[in-house]
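# step 3/5: fold
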Amino acid sequence: MRVRINGGIKDYRTVWYKNGVVNLIDQTKLPHRFEIFRSADFRDTASAIRDMVVRGAPAIGATAAFGMAQAAFWFRSDDFGEFKDYMRDVSEILRSTRPTAYDLFYAVDLMYKILDETNSVKDAKAEIQEKSQKYADESARMCKNIGKIGEKLISKNDRILTHCNAGALACVDYGTAFSPIRFANYNNKDIFVFVDETRPRCQGSQLTAWELLQESIEHTIIVDNAAGHYMKNGEIDLIIVGADRIAVNGDIANKIGTYEKAVLARENSIPFYVAAPISTIDPSCKSGMDIRIEKRKEEEVLYVSGIDDSGNLTRVKISPMGSKARNPAFDVTPAEYITGVITEKGIYKPDEIKREYR
């Protein structure tokens, strides 16, 4: 990911790991400050996932894999039974952080499975270190392929709507829904991007807009309720969103507000694509009805954060004292509203996913 910093441009990954330390671009500080969050303890890494220092299904998956790696790195006993029990506890702590993102569970289980293939603490620790890095590298490669494949759907001068943040910040690099946009820009297609602000945490206006600025891609931020207006007026040609979990029938869970965008897209005959790696498909999830939807704290709705005119980060209450709020983090979009799913292996119709995992 290209980051403009201190008058220059530097490439970063959203998450990286070395010698027991997990490094994350702190997304709670963006777009106003660029800071790196460093964790030498898997519990702090778990908290970073829960508190959305890192977010987005692929990025969460890589962070969880590195959380398993750092827990193994710092373990000091040679007793394999003790090590396996310890890693089981670590895996449960990491799995409990965000219930909807399937990549989290996939990555943790992939690392824990190594313990079934050896009875040596030394060998298991080394294998987890190696496989966690391979997981992150493969995640970046898959997102790059998603971009190259999805870019072919974008025509010159297309006006594209995206929701939430499915860019490099949501992944290890490149992004999912953002990756085709990124490659369309590389190929000089002169695109324009409509960015839903994506309340309540404003991942669109804070994170997607920030990534678009890094790439010098022309864009505008719109309030969530304006998307239908621009669709009806013929100002949007294509919609691309990400996914946190995909059921085998093609239903997808993504950031709250995705479902209404899909319904409006079909009403206005606008192609609606989902971009996600194959690892986001949950073979045990038969339909969207099986997806557990995370409920987050009401404070995220009742308060907003930003910088004041003096440049200070501040948090203010925007609702009456005594009012309550509901805050589901995700919704489910039925397969019937989805034009296609862009993966690293190609573009699938939702019913093709069902046939593959039947």
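# step 4/5: annotate
Residues 124 and 270 are 50 Å apart (CA to CA).
# step 5/5: archive (pending)
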